Give the backbone structure.
Amino acid sequence: MANKVRYIGLMSGTSADGIDLALVEFDTEQSQQANGAKLIASYYQAYDNATHQKITRLYNASDNEIDRAGSLNIKLAQLFAHAIEQFLQQEKLSPTDITAIGCHGQTIRHRPTISQFASTPFTLQIGCLQTLALLTGIRVVGDFRTKDIALGGQGAPLVPAFHQAIFGSTENDVFIVNIGGIANITFLPKNSPESTIGFDTGPGNALMDYWFAQHQAGRFDMQGKWADSGNICQDLLRPMLDEPYFKQPAPKSTGREYFNAQWLAKFIGKNAIKPADVQATLTALTAETIAQQINKLSTKSDVYLCGGGVENNVLVSLLNHKLSKHQVMNTQSKNINSDSLEAMAFAWLAFAFDKNIFGNIPAVTGASKPAVLGISVNP
């Protein structure tokens, strides 16, 4: 263990379903490479319905949002700390066994470009780092996106640097597709790490989850069963695919501020479409917008899927069909739990902060230069 250090990565995504934790061991002799990372264990703590609703209500401007965000900032840190305490008990570890926590926090607003909503680009994640450090007794590294924004980037996606080291291939082009609330891809051209790119393709589970919650009991369409009961409505799908964001070149990133209930309503309008058919169409929208970008970038590749969307059988089936010339796999084929990959990336970003390793890729985020990302908070 002389050359081994352990970090916990903490991720709470735009689906706002819960907290993903990853315990990652790094070999300090391979400090310049993420492939020195080894996933030791993972842990998941679901949010209750009240917490889920408090988070999602902050995705768009509404009354009293500063007070609600300030309170939730502390509450989430408390929930993060409790999850870490349970995780350490599960692994029979103490806080002194952990070098640091890499905390992504919870994004509640992402405005990466100048718009009618933001005269200056910004991104905002909550989950108070100081509260988390004090409650756990472990140093916390977080606020990873702000410096990239300050350098003219979009602050997202940040995981491609990590993907590059653990998935890069000399034999095939590789894509990593993370299907969370928003879907994003990393493209790793074979033998060309300097050409790595990554961006948000558009909605992942966000619109499907919203529509399901409006018409069914629960937060999401388990295994895509409700979507499977409907039919894809091409008259709805075609105009949605004409959305300018899908044609916008990278670097680009988006969020639930863009792809939300209001966005969906303008397409549905007063049309009498069966709710299950809308769900099937939204599932097809996610698959189509992911597949279009992959097919545009490569004619044959290895495609690794991760994130909550891999549990949606209908979505995965559509992706397999639309990516028939590619080999589509779950990240489990690399012995990486699909739900743990992003949490692993934020453990690595904390490690990268400590080792003075650049955590962003300017070609991905649009930043003016690579940078060491994050800030460190002692307990």
Remarks:
- The chain has two domains: 4-156+342-377, 160-334.
- The CA atoms of residues 171 and 190 lie 6 Å apart.
- Residues 4-156+342-377 form a domain with the Nucleotidyltransferase; domain 5 fold (CATH 3.30.420.40).
- The first strand starts at residue 4 and ends at 12.
